[in-house]
Amino acid sequence: MRIGLIRMRYTPYGGAEVFLNRFIAELIKRGHKADVFSSFWEGASGITVHKVDAGGPRFLRPLRFAENAEKEVGRVNPDIVLSLERTYCQDIYRAGDGCHKEWLIQRAKTVSVTKRALISINPLHMVLLNLEKRLFSSGRLKCVVANSNRVKEDIIRHYGLPEEKICVIYNGIDPGAFKGPDEAERARLRASFGVNENTVLLLFVGSGFERKGLLYAIRALGFLKDKGDIRLLVIGKGKADGYIAEAKRLGVEGRVMFKGPVEGASSYYQAGDIFILPTIYEPFSNACLEAMAAGLPVITSRINGASEILSDGVNGGIVENPLDHEEIAGKITLFLDKNKRVKAGELSRAEALKHPIERNVEEFLKLIEGLQR
202 and 124: one domain? Predict the structure, then answer.
């Protein structure tokens, strides 16, 4: 079978890329042919890459890509097409980025009236909403794969897609890449941050600090400043100045450490005690799944699809309102006791190991092969 895959840009990093690597390898192993449609694909091997133009102003690039992808897919004519982008020439759409309409609704809750107005007339959002609407009304679309039940519900609510056209396949990890606690590595990493074993180290990993809820994590830390030596390590790309100012306002500037973006961020899970991601919108956080695999209790928002594999108060904490720093602080408090934290980490890791990338890929292949019958 000749399978088309649509991805606007590909680099060897990121959750979607991990999925694609494994998925393509399994396609080839099973004797299928993979045709990739992309404007940029780094390190192609064993596949045929079809260049799709996505030039022009930034706000028009998604539309230009969608239009040119449709032309190129029509020319190549694969047996079945899987898209990871908001296009309208696919049989299967993997909604890994969630529902843009829902994201804008959630973001509006966190910004001023003026900023909401500016967002509403931002041409990029207009383009993405148009593409999303056209995608879900496409006559060619046979199935949508959501990576959480929350995303599935959002798509049904906003676009009226029949429930039977949407299936949920959770993200997967490579279990071999995440070992359990390593005391020597833990001690080395913590020493590099000036942290000893009496410190409870909260770990935040994610780029795009606004969406990931860093502001509310810092405010929760401020609420807990009299609860002992609790610190926050932030790993990821973003402008830190405003967050440093907020930490200073709360009197915890010495407790917040910014590492910046790093390669192999997963190695830093060994240093942490509790993983925290009070995101205001997240289809399914790979970072949360990775932290669980590394043996950390995870505190995140209900709106994060990864919360669906957490048990509140058992292997992590689920925050109903990510804008409520007192609620976040309360979830952190549940795991300040070391014995409870260690037990929660063990349960967290056991749950994460139920979601290997192989299972994720296998479910996709069954879906594709089933549509071809």
Answer: no
- 334 φ, ψ to 5°? -55, -25
pLDDT digit string (tens) for 290-325?
Answer: 999 999 999 999 999 999 999 999 999 999 999 999
Answer whether 177's CB lies under 8 Å from 21's CB.
no
Q: Which of 157, 122, 112 is nearest to 136 (CA)?
A: 157
Contact 318, 344 (CB under 8 A): no
Taking the C-alpha atoms of residue 214 and residue 205, their distance in angstroms, rounded to an integer, is 10
Q: Are residues 88 and 215 in the same domain?
A: no
User: Same domain, yes or no, for 292 and 203?
Assistant: yes
Instruction: Judge residue 64's burial from the number of C-beta atoms within 10 Å of its C-beta, 0-12 exposed, 13-18 middle, 19 or more buried.
Output: middle
pLDDT band of residue 265 (cuts 50, 70, 90) is: confident
Q: How many domains does the chain have?
A: 2
- Model pLDDT, residue 372: 72
User: Residues 86-127: pLDDT tens digits?
Assistant: 999 999 999 999 999 999 999 999 999 999 999 999 999 999
Give the tens place of pLDDT for each residue, 121-158.
999 999 999 999 999 999 999 999 999 999 999 999 99
User: What SS3 state is found at 323?
Assistant: coil
What residues have CB less than 8 Å from 15, skipping those under 6 apart?
96, 171, 286
- With beta carbons less than 8 A apart as the criterion, state whether 163 and 155 touch: no
Residue numbers of the domain that contains 262: 175-352
Contact 177, 18 (CB under 8 A): no
What backbone torsions phi and psi does residue 227 show, to the nearest 5 degrees? -95, 10
* Mean of per-residue pLDDT scores for the chain: 93
What is the helix, strand, coil percentage profile of the chain, to 5?
Answer: 45, 20, 35
Distance separating alpha carbons of residues 79 and 96, to the nearest angstrom: 22
Contact between 232 and 256 (Cβ < 8 Å)? yes
Record the pTM: 0.92
Sorted by sequence, the CB contacts under 8 Å of residue 98 that are 6+ apart come out as: 151, 154, 281, 282, 283, 305
Bridge partners (DSSP) listed for residue 92:
82, 143
Residue 67 phi, psi dihedral angles, 5° rounding: -65, -45
The token pair at 130 is: 């148009």
Q: Tell me the torsion sign for CA atoms 30, 33, 39, 40.
A: positive
